[in-house]
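Practice set, problem 2.
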Amino acid sequence: MIKLQEAVLLTASLCAVGFSYAALRNTAGSRHGNAVLSPNPVRLEQLIPLADTLVAGTSGDVVVQALDYECPPCRGHETENRAFRAKYPKTGWLILQFPLGMHRHAYPLSLAALEADRLGAFKEFHAAVMARPILPQESVGKYLDRVAPSLAWIGAKDLRKDEGFRKRLDTIRHLPIDGTPTYFVFRRDGATGLTNSVRDAEAFLGAAKPTGVSEEGCRPGAECR
């Protein structure tokens, strides 16, 4: 029987499976601006109707982040993501719900996020869920009652019956996403790329000089490689 601590470490390692592949793929990508990103075959126009908006943006630069609300690396990246959004408030930032099958609560949390977005409460939902993780024994309703009481009623709804939400998540699953988080980056000059590093996304957009440091090696619950 797997102990809770071992399960958490295993979950963190599994979340990072896609990153190892993405890191290798990034080495074969093309250089844009100050960072090397993987080729991105997806147009922004394809992602906008599938995504939830955190920052509308006015600069023409857009970051679309694919995440799983139960994935430790996604939460580990959030401090840097918030710092980026605060530093560059004119850059658009959208969220794609990409629940991983290995996570018990990921799919219902994604459905709750879509419902919160439909009701104009997505920013509140996202901030609350990224701040504190759901516990293994909690239902989504009890979890939201703990971290965002005003949204607890969303977790009590049976959103699995919403055909529109299910089709939306099925469409997202077919996008070129290897793991979470993944960042689709669109620059105002038309250049685009794909990465799992917000630092590379920042450099790609011309907002920073290259650091020469890769984020792929360090993940919560695992040693740096």
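Problem 2, part (b): a different protein.
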Amino acid sequence: LSTLQQGKVYGTAAIKIYDECCASFGWDRSQRGKFAQQRRLFAVAADADRKRNIWFICHSNWTKEHGKGGKINTIKDNRDTVEVKFIYPIAEPQACDLNDTVVFAKRKDGFYEFLGVYKMTGITPGRMETRNQIETYKRIGSVWPI
């Protein structure tokens, strides 16, 4: 691989795509296990510069398991926006990381599509009694490396 292009698919297994990106772009191979089955599919500061996060969204409004695991991932605005709603008490909101994030999303056909590079632009805290939280990410790049 020489680049990742927004809208292109790169395979069906997050760990295999991550391995290929480690070889091609120098991503942090020590974080490989975070992309195995039954894992969060998210690594902090995992690119070659150790500045950007890597995220594979496997459940979203693109798949039939939209709200699995207490989080609802919604891809909208022609892929320009990703929203993550944490549903308490099933999923406790994570500590927010403001690093830019390289994002792939699984489609209904099972393939991961490269969405681009995103920046978290907002956190909307939920009501005190539910503690639900919404994180909003906006695309800042459609090619990797940027």
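Answer key, part (b): Residues 85 and 107 are 19 Å apart (CA to CA). The longest strand covers residues 112-125.
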